[in-house]
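lol so apparently i was supposed to do this last week
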Amino acid sequence: MATPNRMITLAARPVGFPKDSDFKLVESPQPTPKEGEFLVRIIYMSVDPYMRGRMNDAASYAAPVQLGEVMGGGAVGKVISSNNNNFPEGTIVEGPFGWQEYAVSSGQGVRKIDPKLAPISTALGVLGMPGLTAYFGLLDICNPQPGETVVVSGAAGAVGSLVGQIAKIKGCRAIGIAGADDKVAYLTDELGFDAAFNYKTVTDYYKKLKELCPKGIDVYFDNVGGPITDAVFGLINTKARVSICGQISQYNLEQPEMGPRIILVSLLVKQAKAEGFLVFQYANRYAEGLKQMAEWILQGKLKYREDIEHGIENAPRAFMEMLKGRNTGKQLVKLSEE
Ligand SMILES: NC(=O)c1ccc[n+]([C@@H]2O[C@H](COP(=O)([O-])OP(=O)(O)OC[C@H]3O[C@@H](n4cnc5c(N)ncnc54)[C@H](OP(=O)(O)O)[C@@H]3O)[C@@H](O)[C@H]2O)c1
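anyway here it is w/ NAP bound
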């Protein structure tokens, strides 16, 4: 008999921060691919902040996960049986396979991964959605120039750790904000950020940023929102560019936080630009972004780290711990051997 398929479904919609009982581990028979389909054994699955939004019953850019449905998300795996000539047995693939050990696919939204080019896990991180987010969100939205000061929040995470390094490649000063002393040390000692600070121990963000950015802030890559972003806006320079990538400090709040209203005044007075973006809007330029990121890795200019949890039963914990900041770099869950 085939190994059963274990998966994590949405058991309840979280109120505030998610908890164990919002998820359910379910076992079902392994799915069988029909004509034109193939079966994937998942090796790595991704847990990402955007998944918190999908757990709500609220309209967004993507439909919410329904109660009882498998949690959605990107994963990398190996085709183990196939009725689709484009994806023969043995092919390594990345696609929207969800939080489960086996998935059937028609190939829609699936890309082939060459395991000789890079570790296959990178297709979910530096050479996948987070890497593309850093690349386009910084370069396309902010156009950073040599000598400019670039501040990034959520700096030690999957996206943020790449943003600061890309800023350095472009000749900028990179300043990171992260939530632990070891993350701050990682940014400055290993990734080459010019400075960084721990927002959980520093109380006056404005004062700290002023000290670290004596010439003001030209570019801000915002992963977190909230009080950190409020402080940054007080220091932006004329013609500053702000990339609104994420607002993770707000994702688990039951009521939206009411902030100071200086943000819009700062934009006005500094004739600055703040622009939100979704990485999907760059889909027709992914090849360009992936090629450049891969080149920078090969040249030793771009480093990445992965935080790997094991076992489908631990996926909810990995997700919740990532939301709390346990991860450095990209949080993944390994479900089977390569
Ligand atoms: N626009 C897009 O298309 C797009 C695509 C991908 C990701 N994103 C966004 O980019 C951001 C980063 O995503 P990621 O995948 O790279 O995740 P990540 O940074 O690897 O993980 C999330 C991090 O958020 C930080 N965090 C949690 N609560 C926080 C709070 N209250 N204040 C400040 N930081 C907090 C934690 O680090 P600390 O230890 O530093 O707190 C945690 O490690 C998220 O906001 C995500 O939604 C947007």
